[in-house]
UniProtKB/TrEMBL annotation:
<dbReference type="InterPro" id="IPR050790">
    <property type="entry name" value="ExbB/TolQ_transport"/>
</dbReference>
<keyword id="KW-1133">Transmembrane helix</keyword>
<keyword id="KW-1003">Cell membrane</keyword>
<keyword id="KW-0812">Transmembrane</keyword>
<feature type="region of interest" description="Disordered">
    <location>
        <begin position="36"/>
        <end position="77"/>
    </location>
</feature>
<keyword id="KW-0653">Protein transport</keyword>
<feature type="transmembrane region" description="Helical">
    <location>
        <begin position="209"/>
        <end position="232"/>
    </location>
</feature>
<feature type="domain" description="MotA/TolQ/ExbB proton channel">
    <location>
        <begin position="183"/>
        <end position="285"/>
    </location>
</feature>
<comment type="similarity">
    <text>Belongs to the exbB/tolQ family.</text>
</comment>
<keyword id="KW-0732">Signal</keyword>
<feature type="signal peptide">
    <location>
        <begin position="1"/>
        <end position="20"/>
    </location>
</feature>
<dbReference type="InterPro" id="IPR002898">
    <property type="entry name" value="MotA_ExbB_proton_chnl"/>
</dbReference>
<keyword id="KW-0472">Membrane</keyword>
<feature type="transmembrane region" description="Helical">
    <location>
        <begin position="252"/>
        <end position="273"/>
    </location>
</feature>
<feature type="compositionally biased region" description="Low complexity">
    <location>
        <begin position="36"/>
        <end position="75"/>
    </location>
</feature>
<keyword id="KW-0614">Plasmid</keyword>
<keyword id="KW-0813">Transport</keyword>
Length: 305
């Protein structure tokens, strides 16, 4: 019995390590199992030979840059023709003139109207003086010379039907000398000369008025602009900007410059037209005097008889 117990005890001691090994194996982590990579090539398939790479010629110069068209950049426009350039210039000038009128205020509009009237008067006056022969005095002079030679019919034929102011006065004087006494002929000649000289001076009063009031309108616009500028400066108070005052002043001075720009050509044209009419008056007086002096001896001879 004792032997059996000892044998059983020995068997327990021998089997205990074997029973503890599986439990330890379960508690310890399992060793990693090597896996075959999926990307590894299969052994059965032979590798294809790689294609030979093409050798590119080596160059030290950089490759030329290829321009990439930009969607926002417009292609260059075609060159403008002469008519298109003139039209563009006219549009730019009109835009500048309109801005000038807006900046100048109400006075500048009145001055602009005066400038149009002045230009129309000057052109009309030049045409009118040319029509009445202001720069032509050949026919009247030849008629006076013919009368001084005693050829009254030829003298009257030279100036008859002419529209020049000198020719008309000479024709009226010849007709009056032939039909009226000397004193009445002088009065008739003076009447006709005054009538035509007055007609030649038409429009000069308007030019004189424009030359006088255009600078005054400019000064009025400047004063009004200065008042508005200082009112704006006062309204700004402590936040006043000197640029605001400077802008109001230069805008106000535009009217003064515009008024002078209208008055100077008007005054110059007025002086020129007055000089032309004064020369016409001198020529008429000279021709009339020569006619009456040439007719006096015959009348004296008749009185002596």
């Amino acid at each position: 019995m004792t032997r059996r117990a000892q044998a059983a005890l020995a068997a327990v001691f021998l089997t205990a390590p074997l029973l503890a090994a599986p439990a330890a194996a379960q508690d310890s982590p399992a060793a990693p199992v090597p896996q075959i990579a999926a990307e590894a090539p299969a052994a059965a398939q032979p590798e294809a030979p790689a294609a030979p790479a093409l050798a590119m010629p080596h160059s030290s110069a950089p490759a030329p840059a290829v321009p990439v068209p930009d969607a926002d950049v417009l292609p260059p426009a075609d060159p403008l023709t002469r008519q298109e350039e003139l039209a563009q210039t006219a549009r730019d000038a009109a835009a500048k003139a309109l801005k000038f009128l807006r900046d100048g205020g109400p006075s500048i509009w009145a001055i602009a109207a005066l400038s149009v009237i002045t230009l129309a008067l000057i052109l009309w006056k030049i045409w009118r003086l040319a029509l009445i022969g202001a720069w032509s005095r050949g026919k009247a002079g030849r008629a006076v010379e013919a009368f001084e030679r005693g050829d009254t019919g030829t003298a009257l034929a030279i100036v008859k039907g002419r529209i020049g102011i000198r020719s008309r006065v000479v024709a009226a004087a010849l007709t009056a000398l032939a039909a009226l006494p000397e004193d009445r002929a002088r009065e008739e000649t003076a009447r006709v000369a005054k009538l035509h000289l007055g007609s030649a001076a038409t429009g000069l009063g308007a030019l004189e008025l424009i030359a006088t009031i255009a600078p005054l309108l400019g000064l009025l616009g400047t004063v009004l602009g200065m008042i508005a500028a200082f009112q704006a400066l006062q309204a700004a108070g402590a936040r006043a900007d000197p640029a605001l005052l400077a802008g109001g002043i230069w805008e106000a001075l535009l009217t003064t410059a515009a008024g002078m720009a209208v008055a100077i050509p008007a005054s110059a044209a007025l002086t020129w037209f007055e000089a032309v009419i004064s020369r016409i008056r001198r020529d008429i007086e000279d021709s009339s005097t020569r006619l009456f002096v040439a007719a006096a001896p015959a009348e004296l001879k008749l009185a002596a008889e």
